[in-house]
Design goal:
By secondary structure, the chain is an alpha+beta fold. It is built from 3 helices and 11 strands. The strands form 3 sheets. A 5-stranded mixed beta sheet has the order 2-3-5-6-4, with helices on both faces. A hairpin with a 7-residue loop joins strand 7 and strand 8.
């Protein structure tokens, strides 16, 4: 089974917070997306606006690295499959309900012996970056989306990629790792 990192397709319009305080609040609530529920830190619905009007508005607009945002249509399609792996935090985009996806499915499936990993010099046990990912794929068979412990990138399996593509959900891009 293939595993992918999830990115945003920059051929579509992005969004940005209306109020910089919302940006800071969102960062406090959901960053660094460590795989834990964040709703208990969520105090109010954030508001955002679309950026470039010359670009098409996607189902999953770009908010920033490490964030996936979905609209109502994508929510209806995806949640029956990924609902147990994520938490949704509401965000209002120009009066329309959207949701920031917080991935809470953390799987320790990185094959550290066969991956190429760069560690912080100040803390040689803490991963700075993974140059080459090798996974114990048997741990991801039942998953759609997941995170690794203490690392912020978002990962998905072929099942999630296929679900997004078959339902023509726009705004996401997938880079195959294996």
């Amino acid at each position: 089974m293939s595993i992918y990192t999830i990115f945003h397709d920059h051929n579509y319009s992005n969004i940005s917070f209306v109020d910089l305080d919302d940006y800071d609040d969102c960062g406090d609530v959901v960053r660094p997306f460590i795989g834990e529920k964040a709703s208990h830190r969520y105090s109010h619905k954030w508001k955002a606006l679309y950026g470039d009007d010359s670009l098409k508005r996607p189902n999953c607009p770009y908010l920033g690295a490490g964030y996936i945002v979905i609209d109502e249509q994508a929510k209806e399609i995806l949640m029956s499959h990924i609902g147990h792996e994520v938490e949704l935090l509401p965000i209002d985009i120009e009066g329309q309900p959207h949701y920031i996806v917080n991935i809470i499915n953390v799987i320790d499936c990185l094959d550290k012996e066969n991956s190429e990993i760069k560690y912080f010099k100040s803390n040689p046990t803490k991963i700075m970056r993974i140059v080459k990912h090798v996974f114990h794929e048997e741990h991801t068979v039942d998953s759609f989306m997941f995170k690794l412990p203490s690392i912020t990138p978002m990962f998905c399996t072929q099942k999630f990629k296929d679900l997004v593509e078959q339902n023509e959900i726009t705004g996401l891009r997938f880079d195959r790792l294996k």
